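Internal ticket - ligand job 338, magnesium ion:
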Amino acid sequence: MTESITAENRGESVRLSDVSRRFGNLLAVDNVSLDIPAGSFFSLLGPSGCGKSTTLRIISGFEFPDGGQVFIGDEDVTRLDARRRPTVMVFQNYALFPHMSVKENVEYGLKVRKMKARDRENRVKESLDRVDMGEFLNTPVTSLSGGQQQRIALARAVAIEPDVILFDEPLSNLDVALRQQTRIELKALQRRLGLTSVYVTHDQEEALALSDQIAVMRNGKIIQVGPPKQLYNEPESAFVASFLGGSNILTNPKDALLFTGLTINESQAVAIRSEHVQVVESGGVEGEVLSRQFLGMITEIELMVQGTKLVVKTTNNVPDTSHLSVKIVASQIVKNDL
Ligand SMILES: Nc1ncnc2c1ncn2[C@@H]1O[C@H](COP(=O)(O)OP(=O)(O)OP(=O)(O)O)[C@@H](O)[C@H]1O
Ligand SMILES: [Mg+2]
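stdout (structure tokens):
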């Protein structure tokens, strides 16, 4: 009988419990606990060097933690070799074998798993069809474009029917238009296959667009976890408010009171989304325009308002004057962790 990819292959859940990884003096992953539901799309988002790839490699088994446990489904896989885990990695540089054809690349993992030739052939075809690359079966991978190579990498990953697919910045080598297109396709494929996906990125827009849940990381620690809208609308800390979506952060209680009427203590800050600073004709506070960037749909303006710098993002046509009046329409108190 032919083995085939089941349409509703719900992935397995992934759980990290107090996981740490040290490199010399550096605590690259610092006591990380995560609960990633089966079949969900989960992103690790954070600045360069915060420990995202190391966390992903610990899930894959390419790296072992110094402390803590990793579970896939109910199984404790903490000490299990990468080859024995139901996970597969998709990399930024695709990691395709350049001397092999498309078919041979996709087939490789199936051969390693000792699948019979006939079954392999069917599985390769199915996997390529899933990413709309069926017609490229015998093409050398080196003659494909970056976007096409990424699809082949994806086909190779899903061919082995993993429970969990791990992505390390898989779209960062593509140009902007192709990134957006590929990310829509990636999400659709993930939904169709029901695979648990853990996705590493430092691109907040990508994380917001793709994820069921995002974990924001900083210095090896998880700072906040939640669905995209919740993280965006209810950031708990100044770091999350500014890293995700960009916010003006006021740490001086006097400024906070002046601009927003909110009272904060030393461990708190006020976050004001750039789009919540509105340019008004009258009834606002006046500021001096420091810079102005026309970005197409929005214009980003830096203003000095009574000694405080505020960034304004507006979709309106704003007069080209040296001073503008602004009004703050929403703000919130967050933890000051800057
Ligand atoms: N094998 C290693 N040996 C020593 N240090 C390492 C090793 N791997 C990672 N690190 C360090 O651990 C920290 C976290 O690295 P990691 O690759 O997980 O970050 P990242 O969040 O994926 O960053 P980026 O967005 O730049 O890819 C970094 O300071 C990095 O230099
Ligand atoms: Mg990385």
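Auto-summary: The chain has a mean pLDDT of 93. The pocket of adenosine-5'-triphosphate (ligand 1) is lined by residues 23, 26, 28, 46, 48-54, 202 (CB under 6 Å).
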